[in-house]
Amino acid sequence: MLKKFIRVGITLVGMAAGYGVYELLRYILAQTGQLLPDALTNFQWGIAAVVIAIIFGFIFFLLTPAITRVSARLSKSIEAEAKRLSLPTLIAGTFGLIVGLIISSLISRVYTMIGNQILAIALTVGTYIIFIWLGVVIGSRFLKDQIGSLSQFRRTSTPKSAKPKTENSAPKILDTSVIIDGRIADIMKTGFLEGRIIIPEFVLVELRHIADSSDGLKRNRGRRGLDVLNKIQTEYGIEIFYTKDEKGVDDVPEVDVKLLKLAQALHGKVVTNDYNLNKVAVIQGVGVLNINELANTLKPVVLPGEEMNIFLLKEGKEQGQAVAYLDDGTMIVVEDGQGYIGKNVNVVVSSVLQTSAGKMIFTRIR
């Protein structure tokens, strides 16, 4: 029903445009002297107006699907651009628009003295377009810098304890793995993540399906993820993003691909623990914040030749090896340490191996 009303409305607009074209043609013919006042009767002129209006209405009726598609795409692009604009930019652009309208209005009054009305109208329209464009561009660039300078002055004059605004930071989009992991709450507590924290609604759906799984392990992981999500929503605030209006995102069935598409659309970064998603994101040029890489980077640096005292926990994979672990989970392999399992021993670091899963430290008994 709504589509029918839209089609009728566009058809009426087309008929109005056709009548406007009729009036313009009649005026041009009269001004050029090619139209005599008594060339046609008023009834004949009326018939001509109706015919032209019907023709334009029929054209607009046929073009309704294309017009609605273009209008929808245009409105989405305008909405997306508006979301990216900061408050100073909007204020500056609005101020420049008002100044441009005022200047155009003053200049267009001069054109009323021109004898040719068509030329006066054309000059007026051109003046409005040029000065509105100049007002918005110059206002956005100049006034935004002034507001930014004032904001910078205010930030430097505030106490050190005050949290700086991070409106221009790239949005951080959380995936399912990082929510289930749980460490994201501790990272947010430290304040290392800036900008908008976004949870796409399809991630929420996937998390709910995991929490409702018949598998006990999956169900527990899903419920823990929901608890973590509730915690960070309560303490720090997160934004739930609905992708129904994002055609390039909503039409994709796979969650990982949808996540990367959304990150590209929002110019954001994906926060994840998924190794494969990390690799695909790098290939597609999407920024990634990997919690596992962060944890591995923060692990203590151990150099060959250093000594340490460790507790040997179990046998290693190779003959005679024993295995121990640091407090952060780093695995230590001790050569010829099998006879010391269950004891604290002093070892010397022989080498350090960095893998995708983390660090492995190889040692020998001192």
Unreliable runs, pLDDT <50, ≥5 residues?
150-167
Order of helices and strands: HHHHHEHHEHHEHHEHEHEEEEEE
Radius of gyration: 34 Å
Mean pLDDT: 77
Share of helical residues: 55-70%
Find the count of extended strands (DSSP E, 2+ residues).
11
Number of domains: 3
Strand line-up in the sheet with most strands:
6-10-11-9-8-7
Into which percentage range does the β-strand content fall? 5-15%
Class inferred from helices and paired strands: alpha/beta
Description:
This protein is α/β, with parallel strands linked by helices. It folds into three domains: 2-139, no CATH class; 172-296, Rossmann fold, CATH 3.40.50; 300-365, OB fold (Dihydrolipoamide Acetyltransferase, E2P) (Beta Barrel), CATH 2.40.50. The protein is 58% helix and 15% strand. The protein contains 13 helices and eleven strands. The strands form two sheets. It has a six-stranded mixed beta sheet. A hairpin with a 5-residue loop joins strand 8 and strand 9 (331-335). Helix 4 runs antiparallel to helix 5 (117-157). Mean pLDDT is 77; it is low at 150-167.
In brief:
The chain has helices at residues 2-31, 42-62, 64-84, 87-108, 117-157, 176-181, 183-190, 201-211, 216-235, 247-250, 255-266, 275-283, 291-297; strands at residues 172-174, 197-200, 239-241, 269-272, 287-290, 307-311, 314-315, 322-325, 331-335, 344-355, 358-365. The chain has 366 residues and is an alpha/beta fold.
Which helices and strands appear, and what pairs or packs with what?
Blueprint: H1 2-31, H2 42-62, H3 64-84, H4 87-108, H5 117-157, E1 172-174, H6 176-181, H7 183-190, E2 197-200, H8 201-211, H9 216-235, E3 239-241, H10 247-250, H11 255-266, E4 269-272, H12 275-283, E5 287-290, H13 291-297, E6 307-311, E7 314-315, E8 322-325, E9 331-335, E10 344-355, E11 358-365
Parallel strand pairs: 1-2, 1-4, 2-3, 4-5, 9-11
Antiparallel strand pairs: 6-10, 7-8, 8-9, 10-11
Helix pairs in contact: 1-2, 4-5, 8-9
